[in-house]
């Protein structure tokens, strides 16, 4: 398990290759990457991500541990950035390694669903017309329900 | 105890954290005390359904007792990922 919360950018290719290289007996690697999405009119100047140092690392480790417990996984990687980001910058990534793909896919989705609404990060979008905190979506909460129903 | 504010809660109150002396029994009681302080606190805590709270870095409910709380944090629903 590798959990990193950082301001610095990360290299998706380097991280994916390093994660893959350190596995053994794993037939499937799934990665997800979150990217700063520009507004439809291309007006996003930057995205500022705030977090709760200490709780963030604990919450991410707890979510990753739940995934390890729930699926047959060899390893989990979570990298999440904070600070000032520009459109197209990578915000975060998760990677899962499993003997077979179903576990790797499901665990990656589970990690993303929980991370979105249980890890203490907050996004603010700055455009020429002002600054707005991104509101949590109701969908984000309902996404968690399917993991508690079975 | 240390009380921490994040995102727009921090902006409305104008502080990232402060030390609070309180005899409040629960999180809800602490919120009442803070609301009574000044308008900026009342504004930040106007709608508790728009807020979450953590004690010692674990999410809790408004009715949770403050016993053993070293750090209480108030913030809007998270938007990670």
List keywords for this structure.
heterodimer; A: 150 residues; alpha+beta; Aldehyde Oxidoreductase, domain 3; four-stranded mixed β-sheet; four-stranded antiparallel β-sheet; 4 helices; 8 strands; 37% helix; globular; B: 81 residues; Ubiquitin-like (UB roll); five-stranded mixed β-sheet; 30% helix
Structural class of chain B: alpha+beta
Number of strands of chain B: 5
Helices and strands of chain B, in order, run as EHEHHEEE
How many separate helices of chain A?
A: 4
**Largest pleated sheet of chain B:** 5 strands, mixed
Mean pLDDT of chain A: 96
Question: Which CATH class of chain A is shown?
Answer: Alpha Beta
Residues in helix, % of chain B: 25-40%
Unreliably modeled segments of chain A: none
What best-fitting shape of chain B do the alpha-carbon axes yield?
globular
In short:
The complex is a heterodimer of chains A (150) and B (81). With 150 residues, chain A is α+β, with helices and mostly antiparallel strands.
Characterization of the model:
The complex is a heterodimer of chains A (150) and B (81). By secondary structure, chain A is α+β, with helices and mostly antiparallel strands. Helix content of chain A is 37%, strand content 34%. Chain A has four helices and eight strands, in the order E-H-E-E-H-E-E-E-H-E-E-H. Chain A has helices at 12-21, 55-70, 101-118, 138-149; strands spanning 2-6, 28-35, 44-51, 75-81, 83-85, 90-98, 121-127, 130-133. In chain A, helix 2 runs antiparallel to helix 3 and helix 3 packs across helix 4 (138-149). The two termini of chain A are 25 Å apart. Chain B has 81 residues and is of the alpha+beta class. Chain B is built from three helices and five strands. Chain B has helices at 7-13, 27-37, 39-44, and strands at residues 2-5, 17-19, 52-55, 58-60, 71-75. Chain B has a five-stranded mixed sheet with strand order 2-1-5-3-4. In chain B, a hairpin with a 2-residue loop joins strand 3 and strand 4. At the A-B interface, helix 2, helix 3 and strand 7 of A face loops of B.
């Amino acid at each position: 398990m590798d959990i990193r919360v950082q301001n610095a950018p990360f290299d998706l290719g380097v991280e994916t290759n390093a994660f893959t290289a350190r596995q053994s007996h794993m037939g499937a690697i799934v990665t997800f990457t979150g990217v700063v999405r520009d507004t439809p009119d291309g007006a996003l100047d930057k995205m500022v991500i705030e977090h709760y140092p200490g709780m963030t690392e604990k919450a991410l480790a707890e979510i990753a541990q739940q995934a390890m417990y729930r699926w047959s996984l060899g390893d989990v990687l979570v990298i999440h950035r904070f600070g000032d980001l520009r459109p197209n910058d990578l915000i975060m990534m998760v990677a899962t390694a499993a003997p077979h793909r179903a576990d790797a896919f499901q665990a990656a989705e589970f990690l993303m669903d929980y991370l979105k609404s249980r890890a203490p990060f907050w996004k603010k979008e700055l455009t020429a017309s002002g600054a707005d905190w991104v509101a949590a979506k109701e969908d984000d909460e309902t996404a968690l329900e399917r993991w508690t129903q079975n | 105890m240390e009380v921490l504010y994040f995102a727009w809660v921090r902006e409305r109150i104008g502080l990232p954290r402060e030390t609070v002396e309180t005899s409040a029994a629960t999180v809800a009681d602490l919120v009442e005390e803070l609301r009574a302080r000044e308008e900026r606190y009342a504004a930040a805590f106007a709608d508790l359904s728009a807020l979450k709270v953590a004690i010692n870095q674990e999410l809790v409910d408004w009715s949770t007792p403050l016993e053993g709380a070293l750090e209480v944090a108030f913030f809007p629903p998270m938007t990670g990922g």
